[in-house]
Amino acid sequence: MYGWTGRLLRVNLSTGDVKSEDVSKEVLEDYIGGSGLGAKIFNDEVPADVEPLSPENKILFMTGPLTGTLAPTGGRYMVITKSPLTGIWLETNSGGEWGAELKFAGYDGVIVEGRAKDPVYLEILDDEVSLRDASELWGKTVSETTSALKDAVGDDDSKVLAIGPAGENGVLMACVVNELGRAAGRGGSGAVMGSKNLKAILVRGTGSVKVAKPGEFKDAVMRSLKTLRENPVSGEALTTYGTAVLVNIINENGILPTRNFSTGVFEGAEKISGEEMAATILKKKTACFACPIACGRYCSVKGEFEVEGEGPEYETVWAFGAQCGVDDLAAITKANHLCNEYGIDTISMGNTIGCAMEAFERGLLRETSGLTLNFGNAGGMVKAVELTGRKEGVGEVLALGSKRLAAKLGEPGLSMSVKGLELPAYDPRGVKGQGLAYATSNRGGCHVQAYMISPEILGLPEKLDRLTTEGKPAFVKMLQDFVCMINALGMCEFSGFALGAENYVELLSTATGTEYSVERFMKTGERLFNLKRVINIAMGVSREDDTLPERLLKTPMPEGPVAGQLAETEEMIDEYYRERGWNTNGVPTDEKLSELGLSR
Q: Is domain 245-420 in CATH 3.40.190.10, yes or no?
């Protein structure tokens, strides 16, 4: 096989059995890889009513056919499971080098099932695969675990994916972290690993990924690289200032959610921007496998919040910054570092603290372990992260996420979440298409499954009027199908700022030897999106869930460039369902499923 290895690794933690399984080329061609192939396996094997933290739930670590190749940004892997935070479909991905290393070891993915009696880690050294005792690693941070495992195999080139104490303690927003501070962040995959007593997966591969047409593939890679480098976002903005280049841009457009989405303008934005980061705490840029963009920031902070390591991304800067009313870049960097070490999703963590801060100021949250959790309290924010990672004091309730926290306080409207997943850093009252994308995302409140900020704010691939709903359902549907394919290929979504379907088709076809057209490419993406919807429908998702928090639907933006605007998401839902070929309840019709080669 080319591009794909055609092999999956199945690990049963309950029995200790580890075996390699073949996967047919026909299945790979139809479901590609990453979250696409992961959805196929998950739908076939996991009951819809499974409890997320039970042994019966499974967690998959999946690469794509372009992972480990020279395709620009071809270093991604996906984690697939049932989310303990939302109770529905979860896919979350990460960069770095772990995914490529798994391909070099000869596997397209790892399926983990059951629960180990005692803590273990999985060691993959090419074809030598074993489960090993991790009792001495339990309680250690991600960096401590990574160092210990590399020392154990005596190979610094090995790559480690691990959970920290948050995953062990069942923090519902716990995540999976691999080298360079990269994280498969959203939805609580780290808690699923922790429930299975699986501390880490170390992998070392000495092979390579073969491509079907080396000369043509190289030409396709070079064309894609040229396009990426000439694009103002992927070739300049992200490279120069990292993802936090968005802070000032989003704030100037009046959609930087501030103090738990109370407004879209943050007076301290410049102090936490990518430009400020570059001028003050940046030590060097970092890049994932085969990535020409190098958006990562390695930072160093001195003083009260002294820390050095992988710096905060845009979403993290926002979550611990504007969302909490904090304009202290050092404190934000410290909070990010603690999340990397404990293994916590920064978006959900910052959101939950922002929710808690509003509740505290309104007198609804009184038990705070002595912390003064008012907006703007940088020290209180950092301490709240630490307590959550250890699940101590107020951290016990913060560990549940904002939806459960708000419900406990009797004010569910304080949670800025969709389907239980906290929203990211763009207020949909000023970007109407992004609001629809949030509402219809298969994993809940998510920006990356259809990044409408690209056309509505950045003007890529074309500029759309951000304040109109007209034409947005069709565009959101197209972008969701498109992103399904990027995630299936094993490439970074940032490549999509510059590359079009024809670029990905060329890379996929020359790598695998299977000819794809743009039409087949997009139809495959539609198949994958609908399959995930089918999974969610079986888990209880309905039209009622395809909506936004009431605050965004009914409270006009109070100030700034989009003052007076509301998120008009609900008026677009019917048209979106028609574009999708779903019925008025948001369920794919039999005709649509048949057209896509799917069934219920």
A: no
